Backbone:
């Protein structure tokens, strides 16, 4: 049930954010600081999420096969691989390291 | 949504062709109209049999104006915006030379469809990740149908899988979705939607639709690009979410297949093109340190929210002087900067590249 609550809250919140942007008169949120912050918050969130989902096991930090997989994804990104290839690299390397371990 | 496949930030070409022609004073009356109109009724020196002229705008300059040095220069200068523009614009330009506006429309639709299909297929990754996070197939499909903004969806299932409070998880997903409001601000001026359509169109305001739409030179093509990208992406994203979730369920233990690495890989792929400037890298590094350091001491999901404070901290520490020139946003282009970004060494260093 709590999952459905989270889905509902996220859906409503994200939709209202989209609608707000289309509806408010131009210029209201166009202040440079607001725009910079709007671009920077996703950077911080994504970086935090990447780190946490790579190194977190419940509330502990661990170094396991996921780190190898995400490192492979980083290499794929540096090689300009397409999106799905980046994800595939992470999955395959993680599975491979687990199979060998 | 899953921006990285949109390889380059489209530059909005300045459709100023009417100005120089007006200055030359030799253009037929109809020629001063915006391109939208011009496509409907090409001027006398327009499209017919003028293939020898390579210029994008030059072919519409009347023959009697060609001798005018100033005008020729202006016409050739007009080629530069198109040279630097996205493939979409270039193709639209070519199509405009060879045919009526239907050809330009086809070019817009083709590019929009390419983005929609490429990114729509990424729903597989989401469906698989959601199933691996313990989300049911119905919940994964509901997320893709009703949230429909990829980073937020991945964040939500990741936070729930980590045992986060549902409201904390939703807050993180919501903050990621706030950037769509800033896309909407820029789109509304271009799309000029009637009030009745706006609530429906709003659901499709995401990274990819915004990038395709903002690359279009006029309202009609912007609407076309927005609609085709939105429709194809929405249809495919939801279909592949379902298939990915079903497929992952059939696989059983998703961790044995390494599928728990799909989530962080997606985040990294979304993050990489954003790390263009010092401020972005500083914010990312600070957020990584905060999220990992706070993980053992704060409830699940909260460290990520606290890590979001790295954005204002980085901005006020060193970012205010930086030019906000990349405001088209998170799903922008990949740059060479990635290769040199980030401090080397340490286990987390791959997050920073």
Residues:
């Amino acid at each position: 049930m709590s999952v459905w609550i989270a889905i509902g809250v996220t859906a409503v919140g994200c939709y209202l954010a989209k609608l707000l942007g289309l509806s408010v008169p131009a210029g209201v949120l166009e202040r440079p600081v607001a725009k910079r912050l709007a671009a920077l918050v996703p950077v911080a969130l994504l970086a935090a999420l990447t780190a946490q989902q790579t190194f977190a096991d419940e509330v502990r930090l661990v170094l396991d096969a996921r780190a190898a997989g995400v490192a492979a994804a980083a290499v794929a990104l540096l090689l300009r691989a397409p999106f799905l290839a980046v994800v595939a690299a992470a999955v395959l390397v993680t599975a491979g390291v687990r199979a060998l371990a | 949504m899953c921006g990285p496949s949109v390889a380059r930030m489209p530059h909005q070409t300045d459709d100023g062709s009417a100005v120089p022609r007006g200055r030359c004073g030799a253009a037929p009356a109809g020629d001063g109209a915006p391109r939208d109109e011009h496509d409907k009724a090409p001027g006398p020196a327009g499209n017919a049999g003028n293939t020898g002229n390579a210029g994008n705008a030059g072919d519409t300059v009347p023959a009697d104006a060609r001798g005018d040095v100033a005008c020729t220069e202006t016409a050739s200068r007009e080629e530069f915006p198109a040279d630097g523009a996205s493939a979409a614009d270039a193709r639209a330009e070519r199509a405009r030379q060879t045919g009526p506006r239907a050809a330009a429309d086809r070019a817009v639709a083709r590019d929009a469809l390419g983005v929609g299909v490429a990114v729509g297929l990424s729903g597989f990754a989401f469906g698989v990740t959601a199933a691996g996070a313990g989300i049911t197939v119905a919940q994964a499909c509901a997320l893709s149908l009703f949230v429909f903004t990829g980073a937020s969806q991945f964040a939500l299932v990741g936070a729930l899988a980590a045992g986060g409070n549902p409201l904390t998880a939703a807050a993180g997903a919501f903050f990621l979705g706030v950037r769509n409001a800033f896309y909407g601000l820029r789109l509304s001026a271009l799309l000029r939607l009637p009030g009745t359509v706006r609530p429906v169109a709003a659901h499709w305001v995401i990274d990819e639709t915004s990038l395709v739409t903002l690359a279009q030179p006029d309202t009609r093509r912007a609407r076309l690009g927005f609609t085709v990208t939105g429709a194809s992406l929405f249809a495919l994203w939801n279909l592949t979410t379902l298939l990915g979730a079903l497929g992952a369920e059939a696989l059983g233990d998703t961790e044995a297949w390494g599928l728990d690495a799909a989530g962080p890989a997606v985040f990294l792929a979304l993050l990489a093109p954003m790390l263009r400037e010092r401020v972005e890298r500083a914010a990312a590094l600070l957020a990584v340190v905060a999220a990992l350091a706070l993980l053992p001491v704060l409830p699940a999901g909260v460290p990520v929210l606290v890590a979001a404070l790295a954005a204002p901290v980085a901005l006020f520490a060193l970012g205010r002087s930086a030019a906000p020139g990349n405001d088209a946003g998170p799903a922008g282009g990949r740059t060479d900067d990635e290769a040199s970004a980030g401090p080397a060494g340490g286990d987390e260093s791959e997050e920073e590249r």
